[in-house]
Design goal:
Chloramphenicol Acetyltransferase; OB fold (Dihydrolipoamide Acetyltransferase, E2P); 7-stranded mixed beta sheet; 19 strands; alpha+beta; Dihydrolipoamide Transferase
């Protein structure tokens, strides 16, 4: 028997409650199955299970629970099998002597069987026969539970289809703001931040992007954000010291490059769910993943795994008009990369000062896990990747 616990869906989560179970006791589950919808200050999240077996007990709905509380118990495959039949009890000679004869058993069983027949008024039985209804299976509302004509007529009415699943609940902006403030206060209090910034020539990337999008339908076009995302993922593959977590007094490298993309919520607040294995995805795959992620952030449907395992966060405020951003690290991550708006600036190119598109890139790093030397390597790797967009 194993416990399925309420996961921490981010460093700013302290409590949550199950608002919908998608399984019931006796259902078999496997790793990665979505089994519940948990409401947090970030809204309703689809929670996956990472156990194999059969669901046993489930916690009640709408009960506020702390992170780490038991949501369900899961029996393993062997425990879930049918229990062997118990051996027949030993019958003593004295017990055999006291046992009733078969004839007596038969005689006394008949009235018991008859007692299970429901009381049905004659008119109700006649009407039920005409409608093809078994009146003995109905719940009677008459005297002593007798089935009446009204009960038969009610049973003949078409049953209303089950109502729609209650809509998922939104988030409380004030509660989210409090949670974000608590997490960021903890980050600034516990993490010794260092900051680096660089201005990156975006001219080559913009020209390549214009050429890529020229003959494609709008739904197949790429946004500049995708180039920034892929360039960061490639840079983290070169500089893995900034891709992971600081836990237990030491740095632990992430199992993959799972970039948490910061998305602003309507009504205030933000979440940064992960785009898994961003370095292995093509640009069209990343664009599709980004569109899907933003849509699910705004409409609901995020999975718990997308909130629990980002290895680094990227925030891009270019579409909000900001020319640069200095982020606050989201613990237990050790870095956050920021991008501002792509703007035209005087730039030295081929020995001449020309107008050129540039973008401000920044890094906030955790001094417990790295230093400015490593951080500078990451920003330089992002710059190199954007100068060769055809290789992204």
């Amino acid at each position: 028997m194993a416990d399925f616990l309420l996961p921490a869906l981010g460093a700013d989560m302290e409590t949550g409650k199950v608002v919908q179970w998608l399984v019931k006791p006796g259902d078999r589950v496997k790793r990665g199955d979505v089994v519940a919808v948990v409401e947090t200050h970030k809204g309703a999240i689809d929670v996956e299970i990472f156990l194999d077996g059969v669901i046993d007990d489930l916690v009640a709905l709408d009960e506020e629970l702390p992170v780490g509380a038991v949501l369900a118990r899961v029996r393993d495959a062997q425990q879930a099998g049918v229990a062997p039949a118990a051996p027949p009890p030993q019958v003593t000679a004295a017990a055999q002597a006291r046992a009733p004869s078969p004839a007596h058993v038969t005689a006394t069983a008949t009235p018991a069987t008859a007692a299970t027949r429901a009381k049905v008024s004659p008119v109700a039985r006649h009407r039920a026969q005409a409608l093809g209804i078994d009146p003995d299976r109905l719940h009677g509302t008459g005297p002593d539970g007798a089935v009446t004509l009204a009960d038969v007529e009610l049973a003949s009415q078409p049953q209303a289809p089950p109502g729609p699943t209650p809509p998922r609940r939104g988030f409380d902006p004030a509660l989210m703001r409090q949670a974000i403030a608590a997490a960021m206060s903890r980050s600034k209090r516990e993490i010794p931040h260092y900051y680096l910034a660089s201005t990156v020539d975006f001219g080559a990337a913009a020209a390549w992007l214009e050429n890529w999008n020229r003959d494609r339908a709008p739904e197949d076009r790429l946004l500049p954000a995708v180039l920034l995302l892929k360039a960061t993922a490639q840079a983290l593959a070169e500089v893995p010291q900034l891709n992971g977590f600081y836990e237990g007094g030491a740095f632990r490298q992430g199992p993959g490059i799972h970039i948490g993309w910061a998305v602003a919520l309507r009504g205030g607040g933000l979440v940064a769910p992960a785009i898994h294995d961003a370095d292995r995805k093509t640009l069209p795959e990343l664009m599709a993943a980004l569109r899907d992620l933003v849509q699910r952030v705004r409409t609901g449907g995020l999975r718990s795994s997308e909130l629990t395992d980002p290895t680094v966060t990227v925030t891009s405020l270019g579409d909000r008009g900001a020319q640069s951003v200095l982020g606050v690290i989201y613990p237990p991550q050790v870095a956050i990369v920021g991008f501002g708006r792509v703007v035209e600036r005087p730039w030295v190119f081929d020995g001449r000062v020309v107008p050129r598109l540039v973008v401000a890139a920044s890094l906030a790093g955790d001094h417990r896990a790295s230093d400015g030397h490593i951080g500078g390597q990451l920003l330089a790797a992002i710059d190199r990747a954007l100068q060769a967009p055809e290789k992204l």
